[in-house]
């Protein structure tokens, strides 16, 4: 960890586990360090890269304030990992059929479900009022209920993925990376506009409008926190819904396990929570970072061509009990498509069940940092308990 502090530019220091943050990431972190509500310092995880307002891989505590952009558009984006209680030798002969059926049964990209075709958990149905304000004038979904019904059990695009994996003993795992879909995006968009209005109305000087915030003691601030909690719950149930589809596909295509499959682990890496740091109650924003407090379980994926890690937190007050959420991009999507060819992509995916193509070149392993380097830069934050290797990644085509 290095401390970055220039008293001519910063109000507070940056503690960085990223050994070489690029210029835009560092500029954003400096802006965050000058935020009027920030306390203590800014923490940068080893996978840090540029985002909206605060870097992805950034962690900060705000006093009596919540910033929608510091949480991010994909509220509740996170990971699920589940031991499928099967050996690779049972699964591999049917891997092509399993993969093609997952692509058929799990909507990806901008695809949705038909309203009323998926079971919606009672919690979501009982708390739709928490997002009614956001959907009041929206016409693309019609209502909060339609937004939930048509998006539960869907993956999305970008860096979201499903991956069939194996561990060192060839036990099969499934990993899912997705979030709150369009619901989280609309919540962020809606409340960021109100945060900008709040700061302008109160003549609050911000280093950047992307860092606008709402007071936690205001109605809009409290409404955002409720809407964020709804998105976190939606994201949780969304991952479980996808897992149930995958379990049914496994049961239909390979040896049925004779033991009760272990309960999946589910974590978030885009959220805010009220915690005690520096003797104060702060709203800790983790944007592309996971909680490592009290030996907490963690899931840190690599790229689609490299290993992923299941972890336990070490616990570090300097990082606000946080660590990286993945490998982290080392270049933009546009740059990736210019820098590498499909042939190089295919070489990087050799031995893995995946058809490398131009559409997903921006998600190729070359576009991401080395996951083992990332893990090596945070040994004081997290420890590995299991290493998982890719067998068959799935992404929106």
Low-confidence stretches: none
- Main β sheet profile: 7 strands, antiparallel
Radius of gyration: 21 Å
Content of β-strand:
25-35%
**What is the structural class?**
alpha+beta
CATH class: Alpha Beta
Number of DSSP helical runs: 12
The SSE string, one letter per element, is: EEHEEEHEHHHHHEEHEHEEEEEEEHHHE
State the share of residues found in helices, binned by percent: 25-40%
CATH homologous superfamily name?
A: tRNA-splicing ligase RtcB
CATH fold topology: tRNA-splicing ligase RtcB
What is the strand tally? 17
Q: What best-fitting shape do the alpha-carbon axes yield? A: globular
By CATH, the architecture is named: Alpha-Beta Complex
Instruction: Report how far apart the termini are.
Output: 38 Å
Oligomer: single chain
Spatial order of the strands forming the largest sheet = 10-6-8-7-17-15-14
| Count of discrete structural domains | 1
Mean pLDDT: 92
Features:
single chain, 397 residues, alpha+beta, tRNA-splicing ligase RtcB, six-stranded mixed beta sheet, 26% strand
Structure, explained:
The structure is a single chain. This protein is α+β, with helices and mostly antiparallel strands. The protein has one domain (2-330, 368-394): tRNA-splicing ligase RtcB. 31% of the residues lie in helices and 26% in strands. It has helices at 23-33, 68-71, 88-91, 95-105, 122-126, 132-135, 144-151, 181-201, 219-253, 333-339, 342-348, 371-376, and strands at residues 2-4, 14-16, 38-49, 56-62, 65-66, 78-87, 161-166, 171-178, 214-215, 265-268, 270-277, 280-287, 289-291, 297-300, 308-313, 322-324, 382-394. Strands 10-6-8-7-17-15-14 form a seven-stranded antiparallel β-sheet. Strands 1-2-3-4-12-11 form a six-stranded mixed β-sheet, covered by helices on one side. The chain has a two-stranded antiparallel ribbon with strand order 5-9. β11 (270-277) and β12 (280-287) form a beta hairpin. The model has no long low-confidence stretch (mean pLDDT 92).
């Amino acid at each position: 960890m290095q401390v970055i502090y220039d008293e001519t530019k910063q109000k507070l220091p940056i503690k960085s586990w990223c050994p070489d943050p690029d210029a835009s990431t560092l500029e954003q972190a400096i802006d965050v360090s000058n935020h009027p509500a920030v306390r203590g310092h800014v923490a940068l995880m080893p996978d840090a890269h540029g985002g909206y307002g605060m870097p992805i891989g950034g962690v900060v505590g705000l006093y009596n304030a919540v910033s929608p952009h510091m949480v991010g558009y994909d509220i509740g984006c996170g990971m699920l990992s589940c031991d499928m209680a099967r050996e690779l030798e049972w699964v591999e002969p049917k891997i092509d059929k399993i993969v093609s059926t997952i692509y058929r049964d799990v909507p990806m990209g901008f695809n949705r479900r038909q309203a009323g075709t998926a079971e919606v958990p009672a919690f979501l149905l009982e708390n739709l009022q928490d997002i009614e304000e956001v959907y009041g004038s929206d016409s693309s979904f019609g209502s909060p209920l339609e937004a939930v019904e048509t998006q539960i059990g869907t993956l999305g695009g970008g860096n979201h993925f499903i991956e069939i994996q194996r561990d060192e003993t060839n036990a099969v795992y499934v990993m899912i990376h997705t979030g709150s879909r369009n619901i989280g995006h609309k919540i962020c968009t809606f409340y960021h506009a109100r945060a900008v209005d709040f700061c302008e109305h109160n003549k609050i000087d911000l280093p950047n409008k992307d860092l606008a915030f709402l007071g936690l003691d205001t109605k809009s601030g409290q409404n955002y926190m409720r809407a964020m909690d709804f998105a976190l719950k939606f994201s949780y149930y969304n991952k479980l819904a996808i897992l149930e589809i995958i379990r049914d596909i496994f049961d239909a295509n390979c040896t049925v396990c004779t033991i009760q499959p272990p309960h999946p682990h589910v974590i978030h890496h885009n959220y805010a929570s009220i915690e005690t740091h520096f003797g104060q109650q702060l709203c800790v924003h983790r944007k592309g970072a996971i909680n490592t407090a009290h030996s907490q379980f963690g899931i840190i994926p690599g790229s689609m061509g490299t290993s992923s890690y299941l972890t336990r937190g070490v616990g570090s007050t300097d990082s606000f009990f946080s660590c990286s959420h993945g490998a982290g991009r080392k270049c933009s999507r546009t740059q990736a498509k210019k820098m590498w060819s499909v042939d190089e992509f295919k070489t990087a995916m050799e031995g893995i069940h995946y058809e490398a193509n131009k559409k997903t070149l921006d998600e190729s392993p070359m576009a991401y940092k080395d996951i083992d380097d990332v893990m090596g830069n945070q040994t004081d934050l997290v420890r590995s308990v299991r290493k998982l290797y890719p067998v068959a990644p799935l992404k929106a085509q």
